[in-house]
Specification:
Helices cover 7% and strands 51% of the residues. The protein has 365 residues and is mainly beta. Helix 1 packs antiparallel against helix 2. The protein is elongated and about 95 Å long.
């Protein structure tokens, strides 16, 4: 609580010397200011008896807002809720503590703030702060805990985002719209001991979302809404968006402490894999070679032009290769001896290199 000092001046010909009392800095307000949040004129204070409620109308600006509340010691448990005029619950904090906080992102609208004394009685203060979505997590850090942030439709574009937030993820980079023509890249910050998730949704068609670090693939997924995630590592990462036709993708990046995420039982774990090297040429001369971008399920024919060893391997993407002529498949590398054309099929989109090697003897070995 903020306390103001009153300076008393004694009556008489000679005023008493003034004494200045330092008002200690509010640590919560200082932490929010450092995080980039700004206080607004929406603030108030009062007194509540046990089970008493206070309701006040507030104007919510567009963007993200946070309500921070403090109480005197006898008011041991204060609950807070934010409602739209039609009764829709916009945000709520009913945790058993004296410092409820509300965080909400959405369009500008009128709303009602409701405070209820659940246990005890005493004074309270509340204030509304504004800031970027990525700064909202400073509220939880400043007061010790906070319920998940509410993001109003249509900004919430992926159901999995709410699940990620429940598991301990929070906003690392604010939502952005990216025009995807061919391929678009953007950096993703990583830190040791933390997990990062990138989620994307296309307004038309689908996109392929890929996460890589120092040229090594971490995870890739394709769909109209898709996500990739990785835990651990502190080297810079790059997110890559690809689309067969021009589209606009809404992208959000989240991050969380790995020890709070819950591990493999709580979510999928992306693991860095080394860049795929070409298979051995077995000392043979290369007779023919090339590179293709293969679609999932599409069969590609490679004429033999005599006997030799055919090799194909994935250089970008996560795909299982199968040589239909020989029925031999070996993950992201496939090879076989053949005197006839081979047909290659992948189970996912991928960039593939291939080559025919000259035979060691006349005919399959």
């Amino acid at each position: 609580m903020k306390w103001w000092c009153v300076l008393l001046v004694a009556c008489g010909a000679t005023p008493a010397p003034r004494t200045t009392v330092e008002v200690p800095e509010d640590p919560v307000a200082a932490a929010l200011t450092r995080a980039g949040l700004q206080p607004t004129e929406v603030a108030g204070h009062g007194f509540l008896a046990t089970e008493e409620r206070m309701r006040t109308r507030v104007a919510l600006p567009a963007g993200c807002v946070a309500f921070v509340t403090k109480t005197s010691a006898p008011l041991r448990d204060l609950d807070a809720a934010l409602y739209a005029p039609d009764g829709t619950l916009l945000a709520e904090d009913v945790e058993p503590d004296p410092h409820p906080t509300l965080r909400r992102c959405g369009e500008a609208q009128e709303a009602y703030l409701v405070l209820a004394a659940y246990d005890g009685a005493g004074r309270f203060e509340y204030a509304m702060w504004t800031g970027a979505e990525s700064s909202m997590d400073a509220v939880a850090e400043a007061v010790g805990s906070a319920p998940p942030m509410r993001v109003d439709a249509p900004r919430r574009f992926l159901e999995g985002e709410e699940a990620l937030r429940r598991r301990g993820f929070s906003t690392l980079q604010d939502e952005r719209s990216i025009r995807v023509v061919g391929e678009v890249r953007f950096p993703v910050a990583r830190a040791r001991g933390r997990c990062v998730a990138v989620i994307a949704a296309a307004n038309r068609g689908g996109v392929t979302l890929r996460l890589e670090s120092e040229g090594s693939a971490i995870e890739e997924a394709t769909g109209s809404t898709t996500a990739v995630q990785q835990c651990g590592g502190d080297s810079p990462a790059t997110a890559i968006l690809r689309a067969d036709e021009e589209t606009t993708a809404r992208v959000r990046v989240l991050s969380g402490e790995s020890e709070n995420i819950g591990g493999e039982q709580a979510l999928w774990l992306g693991e860095e894999t080394p860049r795929i090297a070409a298979p051995s040429d077995h000392g043979r001369a290369v007779r023919d070679a090339g590179e293709i971008n293969a679609r999932a399920g599409a069969m590609v024919n490679f004429p033999a032009e005599g006997c030799g060893r055919f090799q194909a391997w994935v250089v970008e993407g996560h795909a299982e290769l199968e040589l239909r002529s020989s029925r031999r498949s070996r993950g992201n590398i496939a090879e076989a001896e053949s005197c006839e054309a081979v047909q290659l099929v992948t189970d996912a989109p991928a960039r593939i290199r291939w080559r025919w090697l000259a035979p060691l003897v006349d005919g399959p070995s």
